[in-house]
Design brief:
Layout: E1 17-24, E2 28-36, E3 46-55, E4 60-63, E5 73-75, H1 79-89
Antiparallel strand pairs: 1-2, 2-3, 3-4, 4-5
Length: about 90
């Protein structure tokens, strides 16, 4: 979902980014946007890019990185990923 969004990524291509889930609640998911610096078998070596929140019920993806906590930016993304997420979550 984040890879298909307009989340600002400058360090690497979007195909290289991943999420590290911080908080997984029924209505909201918070995650760090990261990428691997040196591929390790235990995924211990990564660089932090930013934060996202995903409003599960309303299918809204937010960039809430850095100073955006108080004023997050709504991201656009391919809606097929929200549908797929819903099917997996049930």
């Amino acid at each position: 979902m984040v890879r298909s969004s307009n989340f600002p990524v400058h360090e690497v291509t979007k195909s290289k980014i991943n999420l590290l889930i911080d908080d997984d609640q029924p209505s909201m998911i918070t995650a760090q946007v990261i990428y691997d610096v040196t591929p390790q078998s235990d995924n211990s070596s990564f660089t932090f890019i930013g934060w996202i929140k995903y409003d599960v019920a309303n299918h809204i993806l937010w960039n809430n990185s850095a100073n955006l906590d108080e004023h997050p930016v709504k991201l656009s993304f391919n809606p097929q990923y929200a549908d797929g997420f819903d099917r997996c979550r049930k």
